[in-house]
């Protein structure tokens, strides 16, 4: 790339409507005053008119070609291209010529008549209403919240997404009443290196109050920091689901009441199917995490764990979920979900399997901002009686 006198880089942008290459210098020297001047790296999903064909396509920078969306493409793109080629071969096509964007004249070099916008009149059918009904309208935010089951997709390279919220949990068991407040449930999702790679940073603050026999005890503080990555594995094709893998672990940075004082690794496999396009989706999550139980944490002491019965120890906690999501309108969505926790190798008698049902709604305020609410309850005695929460997600 060379530096222009106007101070702009000579970046070329490709019109997806007529394949015309247009230099950014056209913007810099003011030949197209109706265009807005933006950073070249952001000129990927815009609807400015092409100077060659007059359309308002999705522009893309050939210098910023994106890689595969998933780690294992499984020849999906190849098969799609082959199907497209077969379809094209079955229909008669007219010869297409790429206009020269650097020479906008009424006649091209071989003398054929051309209109002033640089396109042969044979191919001058354009859509100038400014609407792009393709991927731009479908490129809406996809969040991990509010359901327990997280999304089987990544945010995409160059995207940053913040998800946050509040949850209230109530439980009453064995004469002990427990109220738990969780906030801000902050999760940063950062797309890096490729569309299938996502860095994840989660942090939360908790407030717990236990009341037994008229005596109340309160603990408050930060929970352990959670770090991880999400890897997009496959896109949906036929019965094969869209899949992603999360590899994560907690770092002992929290308050004494809620920190395990150890690194707790975990792994999650996410999968989903779009059963009815733009309406019905089903999915699930299979997860395994290392957990700690025992009496020598402040949390264990507050819970009344007897050190002679349950010394501090580690165990594996498995979880499984199944969820169904509906797109009620273009903006309003709903979900219904079952999930459960299954401790393995724990010697603490208070650590038992827990089963839950929950449901909620999401509302898409803009394509990059979503609001959500949810509520659920426990299905067995070991599970919390009730929980409810709300939150939001914003994509940059």
How does this model look, in words?
By secondary structure, this protein is mostly beta strands. It has two domains: 1-130, no CATH class; 140-395, Beta Barrel (Porin). It is 7% helix and 43% strand. It has four helices and 16 strands. A twelve-stranded antiparallel beta barrel has the order 4-5-6-8-9-10-11-12-13-14-15-16. The protein has a three-stranded antiparallel beta sheet with strand order 2-1-3. Strand 15 and strand 16 (386-395) form a beta hairpin.
Strand order of the biggest β-sheet: 4-5-6-8-9-10-11-12-13-14-15-16
In whole angstroms, the N-to-C terminal distance is 28 Å
Tally of separate helices: 4
Give the proportion of residues in helices.
under 10%
List low-confidence stretches: 1-11, 25-46, 59-65, 76-85, 90-136
Shape: elongated
User: What is the domain tally?
Assistant: 2
Characteristics of this structure?
2 domains; 396 residues; mainly beta; Porin
Secondary structure layout plus pairing:
Layout: E1 12-15, E2 21-23, H1 25-28, E3 59-60, H2 76-89, H3 135-138, E4 160-173, E5 176-191, E6 197-212, E7 215-222, E8 225-234, E9 242-251, E10 264-276, E11 280-293, H4 298-302, E12 313-327, E13 332-344, E14 354-366, E15 369-378, E16 386-395
Antiparallel strand pairs: 1-2, 1-3, 4-5, 4-16, 5-6, 6-7, 6-8, 8-9, 9-10, 10-11, 11-12, 12-13, 13-14, 14-15, 15-16
